Amino acid sequence: MKKLISKKKIIIAALILILSGAFAMTGCECSVSTANVQDVKICTSLSGNLCNQDSPTLGDTSPTIYVSCLLKNSVSATKVKFTWMYYGDTKIKIDDVTLDTGELSGTVELNSYLSRPTNGWPKGVYEVEIQILTDNAKPVLKQFTIN
Questions:
Q1: Pairing mode, if any, of strands 64-74 and 36-43?
Q2: Which of 34, 55, 80, 146 is the most exposed place for a label (fewest CB within 10 A)?
Q3: Are residues 107 and 141 in the same domain?
Q4: What is the sign of the dihedral through the CA atoms of 39, 43, 46 and 49?
């Protein structure tokens, strides 16, 4: 019985070694992070890099709409994507931008913005998706309304 157990251990160890080598040869680039997005706010003007207060309902004459957040526990060169959407008859992507924290790490203040279209803001519900571009990050969604 003892020999049978040791043979099983050897087979399992060999399989793990083979699978590990296969992943290494395929160049699997997995990126996992402890970074997270907090304190997401919508506003029409910034104080420094952040919104002072959250304004989830805005008027249709606002010249610029900002979203700001804190990126916590980040390492340098963390990439964060902001995707702006409008919920008309269907969900429409307006724009997206990817920011890179460069040399900054720890807690980083981030923001993105949209400028008012020539014909004004369509009234309705909008959403900003904030996504840290790593394998384990879930997007943070922030909705707001233009009246």
A1: antiparallel
A2: 34
A3: yes
A4: positive
Query: Cα(38)–Cα(2) distance, rounded to whole angstroms?
Result: 54
Residue 22 and residue 82 share a domain: no
| 96 Cβ contact list (under 8 Å, min separation 6) | 81, 82, 83, 84
For position 76, which CATH number holds? 2.60.40.2550
The pLDDT, as a whole number, for residue 112 is: 98
CB-CB contact of 128 with 82 (8 Å): yes
Residue 65 phi, psi dihedral angles, 5° rounding: -120, 130
Domain housing 47: 36-146
Tokens encoding 73: 């526990």
The string of pLDDT tens digits covering residues 40-58 is 999 999 999 999 999 999 9
For residue 75 the two structure tokens come to 């390492």
Question: Strand, helix or coil at 47?
Answer: strand
Separation CA 141–CA 36 (nearest Å): 13
**Are 68 and 134 within one domain?**
yes
